[in-house]
Amino acid sequence: MDLPLHFTDKAKRDLELVNACKMGKQWAFTQLLGLYRESVYFMMLKLSQNETDAEDLMMEAFSRAFKNIELYKPEFAFSTWLFKIASNNALDFLRKKKLRQSISLDAEQFEHINPGDAGTPEHFLLQRERKTELNAVIQQLKPHYQKIIELYYFEDLSQDEISKTLNISISAVKVQLYRARNLLIEILNKNPNGPRTGI
Length: 199
Known about the structure:
The protein contains 8 helices and no strands. With 199 residues, it is mainly α. α4 (78-111) packs antiparallel against α8 and α6 (143-154) packs across α8 (170-190).
């Protein structure tokens, strides 16, 4: 097979190892892991700022790369392909982690709301970059939970306004909001592969 003219000696070496991996050679996998383990780890550490997450993300990047090794085409160096897989995976992980932390924080804040306090709608759910991701999660809730989340976060209604709109007590609004947020956290923590309904 003709190699791309722009390939360095290192890229050519990697390609030979990749081809060996495609033939099921375990030693080639081990060698590539040894060559790039440290650089991928430090890339993940820079992104995550957490040593445990960086280690997990590094191993997951290699796992994904070698699981899909047949898809690698030598248009780019293997290292470029590997780092792209690693960075995409890390960014996806960090988005989900940030979303979980935001919802968890909101649930903690709810614990401190006084019974007579209508509360102020938190605005993190209104941030544009999260709305699409949250909508997919919210659709997994039962309709009445979807409705109360929509009114509270997306329409900026206070708990008192929701109480009047739905014709339920403020205490019922608080309970349903609390339950809905806990369910959202559960869904995010489980990170399901496909939609779940009827929660």
